[in-house]
Amino acid sequence: MRTYLDHNATTPVRPDVIEAVAHAMRLTGNASSVHADGQAALRLVETARRQVGKALCARAEDVIFTSCGTEALNLALHSAIRAGGAGRILHSAIEHEAVADTAKASGLPVEEIPVTAAGLADLGWLEDRLGHWDPARDGRPVLALMLANNEIGTIQPVAEAAALVREHDGLVVVDAIQAVGKIAVDFAGLGADYMAISAHKFGGPQGVGALIAACNAPLERQLRGGGQEKGRRSGTLNVAGIAGLGLAIEQAVAGLDDFARLADWRDAMAAGLKQAAPDIHIPGEGAPRLPNTLGIAVPGWKGETQVMALDLAGFSVSAGSACSSGKAHGSKIGNATGLDADASRGFLRVSLGWNSTADQADAFVKAWSEAHGRARPEHSNALKAVS
Ligand code: PLP
C-alpha cells in the first residue's frame, strides 16, 4: 500500500466532490444555453461561484472561472499590464513559474524581492525600493506575491506588502493557490486586486481554477471567443470541474480547524528526521507556515535521490514543486534563503493533507531514517532513531 505525502503537488479528490463531479457530468447542458438543460448547468456554476465567494470573503460576481491556477495568474498579470498600464513588475524570488515566467515574458522590467533566511519576502527591501520609486521613470508598479510558499509553506506578508504598493498606486496580484484550504484566506482583507486559486490543491479536480478580480481591478481578457464569464474569459465552462471546485472549497474551509492540527504531525516529523540526521536544515522553521508542509534540506543527498529511495519504500514525496522536479539546480527556496548549493540540491518536500494520518507521518520518519542511514551512514543516527 502506498502513502501519499505530496498534497502540495495535488490533493486526493474528496469523496463528496467526486460524487458532485459525476452528478454534473451526467447532466447535458452548456451553461451558456438558454434552454432548461443549459440553465441547470448554469445553476451549478452559479452555486460554485457563491461557494468560492463565501469561502474567500469575496463577492461572488468577482469570481472568474479558469482552466487552472496558471491561467488565472496569467490573466491577472496580463490585465494589470495591458489594462492597468503597469510599468514594472515586482515579485518575490520564490514565486511559482506561473508568475515568474509570465512576468519575464511580458517584456516589462522585472525586479525580484529577496526573501529572508526565514523564507519570507523582505518587506524592508520593498519599502526601501518603493521609497525611491519614480513614477515617471518606473511607471505603475505591479506586485505579485504568493500567500503561501509551495516548497516550505511560509506564509508571506501579503497584506503589508500590498499596503506599501498601494501607496504608489500599484496593483497587487496574489497567488493564493497553496494557501486556500490550508489557512483562512480573506480576499477583501488582503487588499489585493487579483487572487488566483486552483481546485486540485484543496481536494477538487485538476484542471479548474479561478481568478478573483476586485470590481475596480482593470481587466483585459486573454482568451477571445464566445464572451463567457461576462466577457472576462471566453470558452465553454467546465461545469463538472467548477461544481467540484465549489464543493471542495466549501468543505476545505469548513475543515480548517482540523487541518491546523497537521502542524503537530509536521513538527513531530521534523523532530524525528533531525534525530536521524543531525545536520539536516529545515528552511522556514520558526516562521509562520502552512500546517501541512515540511521542507528539509540534507547536504550531500540529492532531493531526487531521496524521492526515488522513498518511492521504492512506498512513499510519494517531492523534491520541490511538481513542475520543477527533474531540474538539477536545487530548490528555488533553498537558493533564495541562502542555503549552500549542496544543501539546496538536497531539498525534499513532504506535504500532508486532509486524509493523512499520524501513522503515515510516523512511518515516513522511519522509512526516511532508514534510507538516510544507507545513503549517509557517516552522518546518520538512523539505528538509534528507529530502534
Ligand atoms: N502557484 C503555486 C504556488 C503553485 O503551487 C502552483 C501549482 O503547483 C501553481 C501556481 C500552478 O497552479 P495550477 O497547477 O493550477 O496551474
Automatic annotation (TrEMBL):
Cofactor(s) in the UniProt record: pyridoxal 5'-phosphate
GO MF annotation, one: transaminase activity
Transferase in keyword set: yes
UniProt keywords, alphabetically: Aminotransferase, Iron, Iron-sulfur, Metal-binding, Pyridoxal phosphate, Transferase
Coiled-coil segments: none
Domain Aminotransferase class V, first and last residues per copy: 3-364
Domain of life from the UniProt record: Bacteria
Gene3D superfamilies assigned to the protein according to its UniProt record, in alphabetical order: 1.10.260.50, Aspartate Aminotransferase, domain 1, Type I PLP-dependent aspartate aminotransferase-like (Major domain)
Database matches in Pfam families: Aminotran_5
InterPro entries given in the database record: Aminotrans_V_dom (IPR000192), Cysteine_dSase (IPR016454), PyrdxlP-dep_Trfase (IPR015424), PyrdxlP-dep_Trfase_major (IPR015421), PyrdxlP-dep_Trfase_small (IPR015422)
Catalytic activity reported: (sulfur carrier)-H + L-cysteine = (sulfur carrier)-SH + L-alanine
Function: Catalyzes the removal of elemental sulfur atoms from cysteine to produce alanine. Seems to participate in the biosynthesis of the nitrogenase metalloclusters by providing the inorganic sulfur required for the Fe-S core formation.
Family the entry assigns: Belongs to the class-V pyridoxal-phosphate-dependent aminotransferase family. NifS/IscS subfamily.
Name of the protein: Cysteine desulfurase
